[in-house]
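YM 10:42: Phospholipid-binding protein PBP family sequence, as discussed on the call
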Amino acid sequence: MHGCAPDASCPAAMLVRHRKPFWGLIFAAITVGMLLAPLPWSDRTAIHDEVVIARPAAQVFDYVSTPRHWPEWHPASLGVAGATDHPLGQGERVTETFMVAQRGGAVVWTVIESQRPRTWSIEGVADGRRVGTITYRLTPAMTPSLTPSAERTRIEREFRYRSPTLLFALINRLMLRERVQAESTVAVRRLKALLEAPAAAIALREAPIRPKLEPSLNASSEARMPFQLQSTAFAPGGEIPAEHTCEGADISPPLAWTGLPPGTASLALIVDDPDAPDPAAPKMTWVHWLLYNLPAHAEALPGDIGKAGLPAGTRDGLNDWHRAGYGGPCPPIGRHRYFFKLYALNAALPDLGMPDKAALERAMRGHILATAELIGTYQKLQR
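YM 10:58: structure's back
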């Protein structure tokens, strides 16, 4: 009888058995290579939104082109570093920390076109790779009589990006494009709501256009030091540890700041969440902590402020649980952003009792020298 029985003792059977995983590995390697290889064709995506804002074009232009405002209205923006305090001109750049579809990163944006108040365009690079361009186009909105209005502006926002690999193209078509479009739509709605709020109208009228200063024109390196807020508990844009949330001890995180502007007489702190109740469909901003009249010589707040005690003279405000003190993140759904905003004021505020956020903001109006901002995120643990 020629050959042998097809069992484990047969050399031919053993050869076939070992060939199967070998060819499986080859197939897997080829598949991964195809998914990660650069696309041989151009696969581009354009995300477009537009809205009419009841503000003059110059005011809208200056607001969207000032990077420190981005986290206030775009749900994917966690923070911006660099030249953030003025409308950016052509060639200026900033670094933005972002989170899209539960994935975070950092992108360097460079202004490639600036024609105030009509067009503003930025190009992004991450990890040495071009990620796309964002362009804003502003035109006077038409009145019911079909005449242009100087007080109403139609703003179009277009984000164009390309898929670098087949894997990215597949993910983009399956879920990423839909998520980016949804966040862009939320962003322009927030932008409209922010700029049309009565308090925004006053702030926009009072805010001067701050030109970029060359280093040689600044009085000193100390004067150029940015006003910054930090925490040893979490990095900018990072996740807030559970001990500072309702799922832990719910104690306040440690905070420290540097670069107070000259003339600072007191400080105020507001911590809030603009993503309530659902980041995919935010309806309100939930206030977690209010403090005012922190002394100008203070440089930090220790963790667990309820136990450590506030600096002398510091007053509490009311959070949205209608109580004084810190209330930590407790998001009902999704990952929320938490804004820690420290205001340097040129005066100590009068006794406001226990003000809510709106009352504190009214009292600070006209006294704000600078604002430092720290953003953290949190999502409840899946149980």
